[in-house]
């Protein structure tokens, strides 16, 4: 519960930044997914949470997040989100629903851990990236890498209002400039500047 109290103490740094209400869909509700969801709720956004075990296992999390949150299946979260965060083990990326994500901006938080995910030859020889794997799986979505290089505990408390000299920046990467603009606005809403690392090919 300490982490949740800390987040509430820091809410003043985030609330009031958002220009318009957005619904975030989450495919995966682990440390990063639940932390981003809390920040989104503090910014006045709605969140739709999902995981691989079913909506019934998210009752406690949704209760903590409050009335702006609801639990759903992955397909429902993908369909409901104006912006959708895929935050699952890389080995499960092929389970991400394709149809409800057509035309949408998708944030990929995944990192490659061979000891967990098994060896992927194209990642081992650096001929592709995790985001390129997800983009190939979602050919009509716009994938942007974000949130994959920050500890969730730091993510929870470092957000600041736009213009605050202590504001932190998060790295993003992707091939679509418009999609990166959407993600940069979303990160601004939850308290972060961005550093654009360029195309998805550069983030392995």
How would you describe this structure to a colleague?
This protein is α/β, with parallel strands linked by helices and 204 residues long. The protein has a single domain (2-202), classed as 3-Layer(aba) Sandwich (Rossmann fold), CATH 3.40.50.720. Helices cover 34% and strands 17% of the residues. The protein contains 9 helices and 8 strands. The protein has helices at 2-9, 31-42, 59-65, 74-80, 114-117, 121-124, 130-137, 152-157, 177-189; strands at residues 23-27, 46-50, 69-71, 83-86, 105-108, 142-145, 169-174, 193-196. It has an 8-stranded mixed sheet with strand order 3-2-1-4-5-6-7-8, with helices on both faces. Strand 1, helix 2 (31-42) and strand 2 (46-50) form a beta-alpha-beta unit. The termini are far apart. 44% of the residues are buried. The model is unreliable at 1-19 (pLDDT under 50).
């Amino acid at each position: 519960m300490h982490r949740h109290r800390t987040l509430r103490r820091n809410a003043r740094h985030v609330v009031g930044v958002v220009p318009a209400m957005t619904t975030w869909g989450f495919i995966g509700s682990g440390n990063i997914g639940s932390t981003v969801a809390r920040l989104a709720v503090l910014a006045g956004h709605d969140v739709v949470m999902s995981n691989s075990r079913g909506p019934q296992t998210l009752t406690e999390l949704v209760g903590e997040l409050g009335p702006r949150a609801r639990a759903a299946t992955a397909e429902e979260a993908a369909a409901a989100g104006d912006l959708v965060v895929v935050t699952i083990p890389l080995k499960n990326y092929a389970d991400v629903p394709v149809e409800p994500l057509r035309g949408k901006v998708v944030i990929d938080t995944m990192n490659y851990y061979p000891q967990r995910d098994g060896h992927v030859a194209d990642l081992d020889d650096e001929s592709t990236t995790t985001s390129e794997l997800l983009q190939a799986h979602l050919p009509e979505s716009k994938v942007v890498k974000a949130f994959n290089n920050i500890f969730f505990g730091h993510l929870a408390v470092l957000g600041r209002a736009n213009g605050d000299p202590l504001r932190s920046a998060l790295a993003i990467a992707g091939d679509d400039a418009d999609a990166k603009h959407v993600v940069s606005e979303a990160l601004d809403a939850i308290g972060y500047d961005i550093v654009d690392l360029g195309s998805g090919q550069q983030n392995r």
